[in-house]
Amino acid sequence: MVQERRRSWAEPYKIKMVEPVKMTDRNDRKKALEEAGYNTFLLHSEDVYIDLLTDSGTSAMSDRQWAAMMMGDEAYAGSRNFYSLEKTIQDYYGYRYVVPTHQGRAAEHILSQILIKEGDIIPGNMYFTTTKLHQELAGGQFVDVIIDEAHDPDHEHPFKGNVDLNKLEDLIKKHGAGHIPYVSIATSVNMAGGQPISMENLKGLRELTQKHGIKIVHDMTRVAENAYMIKTRETGYENAHVADIVREICDLTDAATMSSKKDALVNIGGFLAVNDWDIFEEARNMVVVYEGLHTYGGLAGRDMEAMAIGITESVQEDHIRARVGQVQYLGEKIDQYGVPIVKPIGTHGVFLNARRMLEHLPQDQFPAQTLAAELYLDSGIRAMERGVVSAGRNPETGDHIYPELELVRLTIPRRVYTQAHMDVVAESVEEIYINREKVKGLKMTYEPKYLRFFQARFEPLG
Ligand code: PLI
After folding, report:
1. Residue 221 C-alpha to ligand 1 middle, in angstroms?
2. CB of 105 within 8 A of CB of 130?
3. Cβ contact 366:458 at 8 Å
4. Is 129 a catalytic residue?
5. Calpha distance 37→141 (Å, rounded)
C-alpha cells in the first residue's frame, strides 16, 4: 500500500508589520521577577520575550480591521458602528438584542445583577473567575455541574466541557427550579483547559432546562473554537461550516455574554446579548450607569467596527483551523517530551499539569505559580497560574480552595507568534521538566481581597 506523504500546512495570512521584542538574560529576568513578587501578572511586558499570559486582547488584527478603525463614527449617540456591530451579532450569533460593554466582565456584572437574587443557585460547566465573582456579588452561589472527567487532567474525553445532566437534575430537585435563574454555560471551557461542550450535550441540557423553565446563559468568549472542535470530533458535523455550528450553539441558549478580546479578534470589547425584551430593557438601563450609553457601552466607535469584522473573521474555516492547529502543534510537541499536560489538548492554550510536574511541592506552596515563575526565569516566557491562587478562598470558611486542577496555562494569542516561537516554548518547558526536582515552592506575602491572582505577591521558600 502506498503511504500518503505528510504535508505541512501554514497560517492563512502573511506578516505585514512586526513588533520587535526585547531579548533578556537570566539575571535581568531574576531581577524583574523579584520586582514582580513572583507574579507573572506584575511583570512589565517589555521584559517578556514570548507572552503567553493570555489570549485576551492580544490578537493581531487584520488589515481589514485596521482599515475599519479609520471608519470610526465617534458620535456620542447612535454611532453607525454600533448598528454595524448589532447587525453582525444578530446575523452570526442570532441573539435579538445587543448591549455593548467595554469587556466581558462588564456584561457579566450587568446580567448577573438583573437575573440573580439573593440565595439563588447558579449551576455551570466549571467556574470562570470573573463570572463566578459577579454571580456571588449579585447574591448567588455557583455550583459546578461539569462532568467528573473535566477535573481529571489525564482523561481523554473529547468533550470535557459537557454538563453532567444528572448532577444538574439533582440540584434542581434539591433547590427547586425557582431558585435557579439560569445555567451558566461556557463554550470551550477555559478553566478545564479549553475543553469543548458537545452539541448533543447542549441539546440535552436545553431539553432539561426547558422542562423546568430555567434559562441558559452562554459565555461565548471562545464559541468559534468550540464549534471547530464539534466539527472535528462530533459525528454528523464533519462537513458542517463552523459559522453554522456557532449559530446552532447560540440558538440553543437564551442569552450570552462575550469577551470579544478572544474569539472576536479585538484588543478591547465585549457585549451582552439576549432574546428577551424585558431583560434587554433592564440591561440598557444599567449599562448607562456603569459603562456608557447603550449604543457604545464604554467602547469607541472604531472598536465596535473592528469587532464586527473580527466576528466575521473568527468563523472562517481557514482561520480557525490554523488558530486551533497552532495550539495543537505546541501541545503535541510538549507531550512528546513526556511533560504532563491536560488531555486532550485545548483550543486556546496548552495547560501544564503543575501538580504532576512538581510533585514534591504541596498545593499550599503554589506549584503552578512556581512553575510560571520558573518558565519566565528560564526563557522569558510569560504564562499564567490556573490553580489554587486563581481559585481563591471559600467565602464561608476563608480557607484556600484547593482545586483538582493545578495548572499553568500557555495561552496562545491569535495570529501573533510563529512556529519557531512555539518550538522555543516547548524546549523551555522540557528544560524545567528535566530539572524539576531542584525547584522550590513559594509563599504568599500579599493577598488582595478580590481576584487575588492578578495582584498577589510571593517569595521563594528556602
Ligand atoms: O477579560 P474580560 O472581562 O473581557 O472577560 C472575562 C472572561 C469571561 N469569560 C471567559 C471564559 C474568559 O476567559 C474571560 C476572560 N479571560 C481572560 C482574561 C483570560 O486570560 O482567560
Report:
1. 7
2. yes
3. yes
4. yes
5. 32
Name the pLDDT band for 1 (thresholds 50, 70, 90). low
450 is catalytic: no
Assess whether 92 and 67 both reside in one domain. Answer: yes
Orientation angle between helical segments 301-314 and 80-93, nearest 10 degrees: 20
User: In which band, very low, low, confident or very high, does the pLDDT at 301 lie, cut at 50, 70 and 90?
Assistant: very high
Given the residues 128, 228, 237, 271, the one annotated as active site: 128
Cα 442 vs. chain centroid, distance in angstroms? Answer: 26
Quick one: 428 and 398 in the same domain?
A: yes
Tell me, yes or no, whether 112 and 51 share the same domain. no
Q: Which residue has the cell 454555560?
A: 185
Q: Which three cell numbers stand for residue 145?
A: 455541574
pLDDT band at 125, cuts 50/70/90? very high
Task: Look up 262 and say whether it is catalytic.
Answer: yes
CATH number at residue 227: 3.40.640.10
Percent of the chain, pLDDT > 90? 96
Q: Is the domain of 202 the same as that of 329? A: no
Q: What is the per-residue pLDDT for 120? A: 98
Domain boundary among 295, 314, 333: 314
Domain that holds residue 119: 63-314
Verify whether residue 76 is a known catalytic residue.
yes
- The predicted pLDDT at position 2 comes to 64
Please, what is the average pLDDT of the chain?
96
| Residues in the ligand 1 pocket, defined by CB under 6 Å | 54, 56, 103-105, 128, 130-131, 186, 190, 219, 221, 259, 261, 270
Q: Of 54, 101, 129, 295, which one is the catalytic site residue?
A: 129
On whether both 148 and 196 belong to a single domain, the answer is yes
* Helix runs in 315-366, H state only: 317-336, 354-357
pLDDT tens, position by position, 33-54: 999 999 999 999 999 999 999 9
Provide the number of structural domains found in the chain. Answer: 2
Closest to 112 (Cα-Cα) out of 264, 262, 294, 286: 286
* pLDDT at position 3 over 80: no
Q: In this predicted model, what pLDDT tens digit does every residue of 143-186 receive, in sequence order?
A: 999 999 999 999 999 999 999 999 999 999 999 999 999 999 99
What kind and span of H or E run contains 131? helix 129-137
Q: How far apart are CA 305 and CA 266, in angstroms?
A: 10
187 Cα–ligand 1 center, Å: 12
10 is a domain residue: no
Cα Rg, the chain, nearest whole Å: 22
